[in-house]
Amino acid sequence: MTDRQLFPAPSSGEVFAAAEWAALEAITAAAPGALQLREKHLPGGRLLARAEALVALCAAHDVKLLVNDRADVARLASAAGVHLPAAAMAVEDARRGATFAQSNRRVLVGRSVHHPEEARLAAAEGADYVVFGPIFDTPSKRGFGPPQGLERLGEVCRSCPIPVIAIGGISVETVPLLVERGAAGIAVLRAVLAAASPGAATLAFREALRAAGVCGTSLEAQRGR
Description:
Largest sheet: 7 strands, parallel
Shape: globular
Radius of gyration: 16 Å
CATH architecture: Alpha-Beta Barrel
Structural class: alpha/beta
Number of strands: 7
Number of domains: 1
Distance between the termini: 23 Å
Number of helices: 9
Strand order of the largest sheet: 1-2-3-4-5-6-7
């Protein structure tokens, strides 16, 4: 996930600061399953400019770009999909809002959830995946309550019929524990963006997932749908 606040502000007229763009180039070159554009407080025009630049960057490495919450920005930028907060619009409304009328391309829609019942409801309304957490403590997720823990993750994975992506305080060392509980993938922010080498950090997470038995990601499996 992106977070422009981890980097210096871009110069006047620039969409990205040089340091942020370099990090995103390294991350996409390491081929994660997807990159989520998550900038909740940007005006629409600036958000769209970032989305369009990232769509082109992601396409060069066969990475999916998902736009947080803004179905309209996802549609205008031709992003792969939309990621919805727990209390956002209905999944079908987001999918319709992100799809050009003349396009047959299926738009991916996921939802953040914080409870097993929320995960089941997201699946019932047609979500392609859910992101569940925070599993462990992390500064970016403290506003969503205390860590959910591994046992709750397992409960969600057992009861939810669509892929569950774990988020929150994840490290390379904890990846096997998440996969053991049924996680189909992981979502990280600081662990990659704030790393000394974002590309190497991305590769390390990919290798940890592979070693734990996850080949590719649940979103990669959706390519071509």
